[in-house]
Every structure is written in C-alpha cells, then in structure tokens.
Design brief:
The protein has 323 residues and is mostly beta strands. The protein has helices spanning 23-26, 63-70, 72-75, 77-83, 108-115, 145-153, 218-221; strands at 13-21, 37-43, 45-46, 49-50, 89-96, 102-104, 122-129, 134-139, 161-165, 171-174, 180-182, 186-193, 199-202, 234-235, 245-249, 254-260, 264-267, 274-287, 290-295, 299-302, 308-312, 316-322. The protein has two domains: 13-235, Sandwich (Jelly Rolls); 245-322, Jelly Rolls (Sandwich). The strands form five sheets. Strands 15, 16, 17, 18, 19, 20, 21 and 22 form an eight-stranded antiparallel sheet that branches. The protein has a seven-stranded antiparallel sheet with strand order 1-2-5-12-7-10-14. The longest helix has 9 residues, at 145-153.
Length: 323
C-alpha cells in the first residue's frame, strides 16, 4: 500500500563555486563546511542531482522515485502528459560573492538537438543585495552579432552590457537567448526549467586556485543569442497582503508573491503541483492531520493531489510557483 502524499521538503543540494560566498550558510542556515557555497538546489530532478525527501513517511525517497510512483498525483495530469516522469522545474538559491560569468541559455529546440535537454527559461527574485550590487541583463544598445563578436574578441564585452542596480524584492525574467549574469553581492531565488545547460561567453579572465581558466562556450553561444529581444526583463508586481500577486506568467511556470499576515485558505485549481519558497519570515502549511513549517530559505512542494490547505503566518513572504 502506498503512502498518502503530503507537503514534501527536501535536503538542499549545495554547490561550491569559484564565485560563491557564505550568505547561504549565514543568512539561509544551509549546513556546509565548504568556504564558497554558491548554490543551494532546493528541488531538482537534474541527472545525478535529484532531490531527497527530508520529512514525513517518504523521507529518504528521491524526487524521481516519488514521481515514478505517484505520476499525475504529484505533478498534475496535464504536466504528466507533457513531462512524463521528469519534474519540470529546478528551484535554487544563489549567493554571488563575486560576479558570475557572462552567460546565456539555449531554447528548447537547440537544447533538445544539442544536449537532449530542455531549454532554460528562468526568473530571479532578489532576496538580499549589498549596496551598489547589480545584475547584468541584456545589452545597453542595439547589438548585431558582428558587434558582439568584435567586443568578445577585444575582451571589451562589458562595455555593451546592461547593468541593473538591484535591491531586495526586485524580480527579473531571463528568457532563453538573453545574455545575463548575477553580480557580486547579490543573493537570490531562481526558478527555472529543469536544465543545467549554460553557455559561458566571458568569465572576467579569472583563474581558479590551480591557475586554470574556466571553459567558454562561444562556438555554441553565438547562434543561441537573441539580438532582437525587447527590454521586458524587469518585472513589476503588486504586494496586496494575503493574496497571490502575479510576478510572471510564462509557458514554463507562473510565479506569484504572497505577503502573509494571517491564516488564508488555498485551493489548488491549477492541475499542477505548487511550490512555496519562503523568502522572509516563517509560515505553516496546514492540512487535515498534517502540518509543516517553512522558514526563510526553505522550500516545500505541495503535490497536485492536495486540493485544499491553509497558509498561516503573521509575518512571512512566500513565492508561489506552479506550471
């Protein structure tokens, strides 16, 4: 007999990075002895990095095992028809002590042809930013592939990039084909398609502790860049209390923000799982015979089969994500 599904928490998968820092440990309470923790993968079905349940009767099971067993009960009927036994989203926290490389991601068509993978449409929600910290999103002028390649060759690419100063609560939508980078001093939540395909085009000429430069992917990247994109990457949204306020809606995910100051009832009408990412405070997820708490820096997955539950807090901010 199978266990009943319930809100699932997972052990974070921590990634040491050349550009990583200490905020995931000091601010979000992630446990690691590594000095430069750049990423915490909160919910992942990426090959060799599948999340493991940390709570309840299914503790110790992988996300892949649960999806194989529960199928549409976990992710919804329409999602199961599209994605089968692959979870469609990857949820991360990222801490950039130093600038990340200038990079971009291929679209679904290119990623499938070259890497047998999904593309990597993503969004960022800034959880903390040091004074003066910025993100790179797109170009600061009209750019052709010829102009781009000249600056790449001359190692002057930053001259044509768009730098955006950011503060807590800023949100950005990073479509496939858009050049981007997280700047030093920024900690954010990232919601993306399940893909680990990144084309690195410029890495500030830095070397690792062994004196090696990191691999660049310019042969793959040039025809993956969309030079005609609109400057629609900065997202504006409302913050009506105790209400799901839309931040972004795209074919791959919807993300809302909820500023929670009381108990609210939720009904899942989406034929999808719902993910809650706690970016401020703490909140309880309450069902009949089950409750679970998430605090700042934690993430929880509500299976599609759960149609009714409550969110309770007098001071929390949650990102609400579904497909």
């Amino acid at each position: 007999m199978r266990n009943h599904l319930y809100p699932l928490k997972f052990h974070p998968i921590l990634k040491e990075k050349i550009w990583g820092g200490t905020k995931l440990k000091t601010i979000l309470n992630k446990k690691s002895d590594a000095p430069n923790v750049g990423e915490s993968w909160e919910i992942s079905d990426v090959n060799n990095d599948t999340s493991i349940v940390s709570n309840g009767e299914l503790k110790g099971s992988t996300l892949k095992q649960i999806l194989s067993s529960y199928q549409d009960e976990l992710i919804g009927k329409k999602n199961f028809k599209v994605f089968g036994e692959q979870f469609p989203l990857l949820i991360k926290f990222i801490d950039a002590k130093e600038d990340l490389s200038i990079q971009l991601h291929p679209n679904d068509e290119l990623a499938a042809k070259r890497h047998n993978s999904f593309g990597k449409t993503e969004m960022w929600y800034v959880m903390q930013a040091d004074e003066g910290a910025n993100l790179i999103v797109g170009f600061n002028q009209k750019v052709t592939s010829e102009l781009y390649l000249k600056h790449l060759k001359d190692k002057t690419l930053p001259e044509i990039l768009n730098f955006e100063k950011v503060t807590e609560g800023d949100a950005y939508f990073i479509e496939v084909g858009r050049v981007h980078a997280i700047g030093a001093g920024v900690m954010l939540a990232e919601i993306q398609q399940t893909s680990d395909i990144t084309y690195r085009v410029y890495d500030w000429d830095r070397k690792d502790d062994k004196g090696n430069v990191r691999e660049l992917h310019n042969n793959l990247a040039t025809d993956a860049i969309d030079f005609g994109m609109d400057d629609n990457f900065r997202l504006s949204y409302n913050e009506e209390e105790n209400h799901s306020n839309k931040i972004v809606v795209c074919p791959y995910f919807t993300t809302n923000v909820i500023k929670l100051t009381k108990t609210i009832s939720k009904e899942n009408t989406f034929d999808s799982f719902i993910i809650y990412i706690c970016v401020e405070g703490a909140a309880d997820i309450i069902m009949d015979h089950f409750s679970e708490t998430i605090i700042k820096g934690e993430t929880i997955l509500i299976p599609a089969a759960i149609k009714h539950f409550k969110l309770e807090s007098n001071n929390a901010k949650l990102l609400e994500v579904y497909v």
